[in-house]
Amino acid sequence: MARVKLDNYVIADAPRLGLRGWLRWIWRQVTSMRVALILLLLLALASIPGSVLPQWPQDAAATRQFISDNAFWGPVLDATGFLDVFGSAWFTAIYVLLFASLIGCIAPRAAHHYRELRRPVAATPRSLARYEGAGPETVASSPDDAVAAARAALRPRAGRLGALTGYRVRVDRREDGSLALAAETGHVRELGNLVFHASLVLVLLAVAYGTLFTYRGQAIVVEGRSFTNAVVAYDTFSSGSLFDPADLDPFTLRLDSLDAEFSDTGRPLHFQANVTFTEPGEDAVRTDISVNHPLESGDAKIYLQGNGYAPVITVRDAAGEVAFSGPVVFLAQDAAYTSTGVIKVPDVSTGEQLGFKATLYPTFLEGPFAVASIHPDPANPVIEMLAYTGDLGLDSGVPQNVYRLDESQLSPVQDADGQPVTLRLALGETVELPDGLGSVTFEELPRYGAFDLRADPSLPYLLVAAMLTLAGLAVSLFASRRKVWVVARSEGAATVVSGAAYAPAHDAGVAAVLERAMAAAAGREATAPAGEREPS
Hints:
- The chain has 536 residues and is an alpha+beta fold.
- The chain is 29% helix and 33% strand.
- Helix 5 packs antiparallel against helix 8 (187-213), helix 6 (143-153) packs antiparallel against helix 10 (510-522) and helix 8 packs antiparallel against helix 9.
């Protein structure tokens, strides 16, 4: 103990906390409700960058491009964990501190609440004058009968649940011979508060469990083709750190056809993927997947997330050999499904590699100044292309976006005037490339479906925790702590009964409870106070 002096007068004693004291002080701060609310707010704020900025686990290509496009901020954000928010040390620290804070708040309050339930009801105050009272009333029955009737009117309940939801009652005979009844209820309010905070911990546990074991993958499947549920078959795949890819349910999904309906104005009406679903050892099942109606497979659900066109293109090189043939996924750019795609042809038998930037117009219309698609349906499909020759850059070892053409080592194919050549192909048409570079054929126009497979084992637990949170919050907000007292004393041959009640100012129903108890003790019908009634 250090004593502080001023002009030879002792004005304070400054205790030295020491290591143990400091640790206890820090623990008290961490487990205070104020700090818990601050940590909850910090957790919400810390989640914002994870939704706004590209993240490594979800989209590595977009994250890499973000760093490349932002020479200063990209590396800084990456080094500080903002491009992998939910796996960063600082986000984990907030999460763990929030757990500690909530548990540190709940545990002592739960123990205190348990002791309160076991503690006997407090005796009736000696004087009821300072409380809102009723009576006195003179009744014909004895004090014992009057108190017994009041007790029955309060519907006391036995057991632990009764202590929470009903009135706990205590009857004492005082020194002056009067009989005093004390009844209290409202412990369920604190229970609701505890359930609310415990459910918040369950929500955090469920989110953590889902983050560790969830997985999600996206795959594009063209009509007539199949997809196998394996990590290597997905276009993009992300999972929790504890998820084992070997746990994926084996199945094969074949897209038989994709139905897309549009109004005359091009407004989408209905999308449906007709698929054949096959599991090992089971017969193939023909079913369908539509918007908001996923196909379930084990713990996962398969959603139809998008659709578009995948024209089948055949490219022959200068020697007349087929260098490329197959469907190419085009991405829709507007409501009329004007779509863009890239064709890369590295395997030519002679000459330089070929590349094409293409635009598909499902219902082609040429105006005096521009061309456009006027409807999403393929009424008059036309593809326009720009051709390039050179090195596609596929041998550099750097991953490329399949929807982008790296033009750094390519040269556009030009006509005799030195202008880039635009190729226009209708469905079934073949166009020869200039300078004997080969030919391009527009073979077919199938559709594709973009499927999203998601599995989150935490969802049932998260639902239960959320419902408990709402239930606990409702109970803590609407339940009220009440105390009711009834005193009966003999005055000659008669019995005089008086009563009082105590409750928070917003609880108007306590007056009706007191009136019910007094009416039962007096042997008359209860009359609800004007403008007040007991909540049901």
